[in-house]
Specification:
The chain folds into 2 domains: about 110 residues, Inorganic Pyrophosphatase (Alpha-Beta Complex), CATH 3.90.80.10; about 130 residues, 2,3-Dihydroxybiphenyl 1,2-Dioxygenase, domain 1 (Roll), CATH 3.10.180.10. The protein is about 15% helix and about 40% strand. The strands form 3 sheets. It has a 5-stranded mixed barrel. Strands 7-10-9-8 form a 4-stranded mixed sheet, covered by helices on one side.
Length: about 250
């Protein structure tokens, strides 16, 4: 059964391991959140579907809440639903932190609904002269449009965990505190860590975008070790300087 059918649904959960209780087979293993199951269901392991209850801090017997995510264990067939109060939400990193007392023993991935978007804490918004030209450039690198407001000539784009907002310049824009001249963003570059540097580089070359600095390998000292990457620099249509970088690991300094 595909447990994704429970995403964004309100679920009734029976709590058999309330917060502060011990695992029935491992007395030293204490539950740091309420943990239970959905009655009259069958999970991949033949038992009921298990649930973590987040956002409730007293022992419970029963709970009704919203399923916002699924922890899918990669090496066994035993998904865990994440259930929260209707007015709450948690990021993937928060879910990891709150369930780590048990999930640290397993390799897993977090499954969200297809329209889920986790916003970074720092998202640059770039003023651009022509939104369509900018989108063509960033799509060449593999960015996708998460959502847009074309009536405002605005787009929110992402590539993995990299996020930008693009806003076409309008007259009397309150965000523009001084005249803009090319290259925009002079004095700053954005380092974008990617896993497919060569493919992105070739996409730009094949689309006749000018590479500012070609691919090179660099090692930067951090205390007594060196952190390596290979990288290239390119300017977007408005001159914003992007440094695409791929991790090469580390070695002794």
């Amino acid at each position: 059964m595909d447990n994704r059918i429970y995403l964004n649904k309100t679920i009734d959960v029976k709590i058999d391991r309330p917060i502060g209780s011990s695992h029935p087979d491992y007395p030293d293993h204490i539950y740091l959140v309420n943990y239970g199951y959905i009655p009259n269901t069958i999970s991949g392991d033949g038992e009921e579907i298990d649930c973590y209850i987040l956002g409730e801090y007293k022992p419970l017997k029963n709970y009704r809440g919203k399923c916002i995510a699924i922890i899918h264990r990669l090496e066994d067939d035993d998904d865990k639903l994440i259930i929260v109060p209707e007015n709450k939400n948690y990021t993937n990193s928060e879910i990891r932190l709150l369930t780590d007392f048990q999930e640290k023993f397993y390799k897993s991935e977090i499954i969200r609904s297809s329209n889920y978007l986790e916003f970074n804490k720092n998202i640059p918004e770039l003023s651009v002269t022509n939104l369509e030209n900018s989108l063509n450039f960033y799509k060449t690198a593999g960015f996708k449009v998460e959502y847009d407001r074309f009536e405002n000539k605005f787009a929110f784009i992402s590539l993995g965990e990299i996020q930008f907002m693009l806003q076409e310049i309008t007259k009397n824009d309150k965000w523009d505190v001084a005249p803009l001249t090319y290259p925009f963003g002079n004095g700053i570059n954005f380092q974008l860590e990617v896993e497919n540097l060569d493919a992105i580089y070739n996409n730009f070359k094949n689309s006749n975008y000018k590479i500012t600095f070609d691919i090179e390998e660099n090692w930067y000292r951090q205390d007594n070790k060196l952190l390596g990457n290979k990288e290239f620099l390119i300017q977007d249509p408005d001159g914003y300087l992007l440094r695409f970088s791929e991790d090469l690991g580390e070695k002794k300094a």
